[in-house]
Amino acid sequence: LAKERGKNNYQFYNDDLNQKLKRRLTIETRLYKAIDNRELSVHYHPQINLETGQLAGAEALLRWKTDIGPISPGEFIPIAEETGHIINIGEWVIRQSCRDIKQFRKRGLSRFPISVNISTKQLMHPHFIIRLKNIIHEEEIDPSLLTLEITESTLLFYEDAKENIIELRELGVGISLDDFGVGYSSLSMIKNIEIDELKIDQSFLIDALENKRVYSLLETIIEIGKKLDAKVVVEGVETAEQLELLLDKGVYGQGYFYTKPLSMHEFESWYDRFYKREERV
Ligand code: C2E
Ligand code: MG
Ligand code: MG
Ligand code: MG
């Protein structure tokens, strides 16, 4: 009997592994054609200046719709990074975001900054800066309207990425440190790199309501960001209580409390409603 069960367990394990491998292979092969098949789109997640209540910009978030359903960036971005696809896909996101900066301008948001997530592999690519320059030039974008979000894992490769980061600064593109506080060595990261924006990971906000120590930490991180002259963004504002906690702190917020990330089309009607609500208040 025990032998039977052991065999079954092995079978389960094997099926599970097979499923995972199949899924991964499906994603990997489809990813090659995702751009040509026009399956990718960029959604925008509004950033709100919590002190003034004004819309201050948006984060570009990649979306992938396939004939087997939507696949989340949490699932496909790591695969794109491992296979090197991220170089083409990432470039596509930057170009699309630059085009949309012009779309936002046409719709009355004349200086609407967009933040784009950048993988370490992208940032370290020898052609990254030249291609970025080309896109900015071709799309005729003011580089100061573009911010690139990098994460702390980039620090592990800091020596390799250093030159590109310096060139980014010279180009006038903003640099944002994403998911601050959950990586390896947050403080060494901001010691090495001059940043324009600090994004505090959602986990701090979630715990701050119930845990005084986390609340103190959150306050301290906000102060650090401000002392470094960085725009401080708190990620994942979901509830009115969380918002309340941040209102007097001079920070920016991003989260489902306001809206989920929106397509260009959805953005327009959300924006209209957002400002109507502001007028009523
Ligand atoms: P991220 O850069 O930290 O982006 C924030 C993520 O949190 C987004 O998930 C966003 O939808 C989600 N979020 C925002 N507000 C809330 C909230 O109030 N509650 C909750 N529960 N979630 C919230 P998303 O779009 O699934 O993206 C996941 C991650 O995938 C991103 O994390 C980023 O690391 C990566 N990613 C997305 N687009 C790109 C891209 O174009 N290039 C690269 N390299 N990475 C990307
Ligand atoms: Mg981000
Ligand atoms: Mg983040
Ligand atoms: Mg995150």
Automatic annotation (TrEMBL):
Every EAL domain range: 24-275
Superkingdom of the source species: Bacteria
Name of the protein this chain belongs to: EAL domain-containing protein
Organism expressing this protein natively: Salinibacillus xinjiangensis
First-to-last residue of the parent protein present: 388 to 668 of 668
